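Hi everyone,

Forwarding the result from last night's run.
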Amino acid sequence: MSKTANYKRKLPILAKLLLERSDEDHPVSRQEMQEELERWGLSAERKSIYDDMEQLRELGLDVQARRGRGGGWYIGQRDFELAELKLLVDAVQSSRFLTGRKSEALIRKLEGLTSVHQARQLQRQVYVDRRVKTMNESIFYNVDRLQGAIAANRVVTFRYFEYNARRERVFRREGARYRLTPYGLIWDSENYYLAGWDELRREVRHYRVDKMEGITVTGMKGHPRGEWTAEGYTRRHFGMFSGTPCQLRLRCEDRLAGVVTDRFGLEAALVPDGEGYFTVTLELVASPPLWGWLFGLGPGVEVLSPDWAVDEFAARLEAAASMYRRRREGREE
């Protein structure tokens, strides 16, 4: 084999060795480099190693040198810092969206972005309270398929199911396929949702991706999305529950200003209304999670309008109170 061919083989071998086995605390010595090259049937003189390191720097690798005893060469700056990789590993491990097997596969790939020594620090377990990992690995690929449909503005079809008390799949619409123009994917409460124009309902709806089966991207052009945005849609839907759109007007104690702005952003207009109170009008979809959020705020918040929302919230409060009164009266008898 010619000298030029040998030289071309040397650089990839040395680059791979440094990327896999070196970091600031674990430089690779000249002797280790020579041994690795010999394993591939290549020889390397001392001077040529220095030239090779300079060539790798010119090719874009941040090759650093440490002199003295225990010295050698190592990769300094990488695409991802170790702290960044730890954050990514934590996110992968804690995600409900990913199956256990897919999480392990992704973490192994993340470990390949640093040295074998630092990769050991990525083999960590993150505890997430009451986390339930999904059992449906197809979700991972369905998201990619849906992103393609969104970019191409193509209608998708799918079947949609729920689980019954026996943990069996029960398909909605008697198993008929849904037709939807996908507008955007939304990550909420550790679940992926697809929002878009439902051809049957003739309105924008959303569906959990892990409950969609048999997703097909058609050749049909999608329905125009107009001014729809994922941010605006998500802000109006509590817990991604469907319900009745409305302009909900609330009167709140001043101490709840932070709670309201945390949930709806600083653009929510808080209007002073008497000593220690403010009013705010919000574009929302009235749903059970919304009533639960309001109930959690206690007497510090009052629903002012629309009238039907006032009546519905009061009726829900009364129904809950009546249930507990009946239970208490039953115990006293």
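The longest strand covers residues 178-188.

Cheers,
N.
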